[in-house]
Give the backbone structure.
Amino acid sequence: KSADHVRIVEVGPRDGLQNEKQSIPVATKIELVERLAQTGLKTIEAGSFVSPKWVPQMANSSEILEHILRTTIKSPHPITYQFLLPNVKGLDNFLSIWQNQSSQQDAYPTPPPSPATDEGPALNTSSSDPNAMPSAASGAEAMGKERGASSSATGAGIELSIFTAATESFAQKNTNCSIAESLERFQPIMTRAKELDLNVRAYISVALGCPYEGPNVDPHKVADLAVSLLEMGADEISVGDTTGMGTAPKTAELLKTLSAAGIPNNELALHFHDTYGQALVNSVVGLEHGIRTFDAAVGGLGGCPYSPGATGNVATEDLVHCFHSLGAKTGVDIEKLSEIGEWISNKLGRANESRAGKATLAQ
Ligand code: HMG
Ligand code: MG
């Protein structure tokens, strides 16, 4: 796979839905995951094993995991499904389903990967900055089963994601513990995940602004935390602009600080919420810095329950349209994706927040 490939982590089924007040039927969530699996996306965050008292909407994530593990979801290539969890209790709940299924794993053959689909135009190398698209971070090499995601009987890769924050106030509000305590909670999760050959992604929230401590979060704090998480065994850090307070200069400064701390681009992902309409421009800053993994939510769904007023992630359709225009390859079919954005927005009775999605459908 070439260096101009961008890996998009579709977080709509988790980040996109977790904040919806109405109870969403599990069948709708499963249909969302199944439809997304047919667009060319290769990584989908499908749910979370958090306290149902804190985030009731995610309470039926175990049924989604069961479905993924039991059913061979139609997709053009193997897909990695991620599940978010904050503590050992969440891990135990996840494992009670995952281990039960994987004990039957040998009974089924793993389907071979299908041939690659059209992945969009070649990367535009006539950029004014010849170093704008460095080859260091090939998202393709870090993808799906190729990056060691533990595979299930149905051929689906499964990964875990854990989350902490760059500020003490947000860590307390979101997980009822300090940052240091969150790292202590992760240690046994990491140990167990490594024993079970499960990849672990680690989110750092409020990296570019905190709802409780304001817009100026120290980038060195983010870098120190990222180093600690990688040393602990995290396979990837997703740097979260939870509040959407990030701007292009702040994003560039944060990325420089992360690089200066020795963190390679291929161990980083960027996770932008679009509250101030800056998510796309910040994503391009990330692309130019050499990041090749980006989180997004179809239809721009979502918001964090502990970040008041925060809106959804950058819309996947908008990110795909933008990256293709720059010559980056995502492998994603924007038409199929746009239909899903419209469908799920209608199901939830909310506006479709993707400009590119609406425009694609209007063509
Ligand atoms: P706590 O109340 O301090 O937990 O919550 P506790 O350990 O004291 O346990 C209290 C009760 O919860 C007990 O039950 C536990 O068993 C149960 P009881 O004895 O009262 O019946 N419990 C659980 N149940 C199910 N699953 C679990 C679990 N843990 C405890 N995992 C806790 C601490 C961390 C659990 C809680 O604060 C929590 O679940 N927080 C999650 C909040 C959340 O999901 N936020 C959104 C996701 S993060 C995000 O969106 C940001 C991101 O997108 C990146 C970005 O944008 O920045 C990732
Ligand atoms: Mg988020």
Observations:
- The chain has a mean pLDDT of 88.
- The beta strands are 7-10, 43-48, 80-84, 150-151, 157-165, 199-205, 236-241, 268-272, 293-296.
- The longest strand covers residues 157-165.
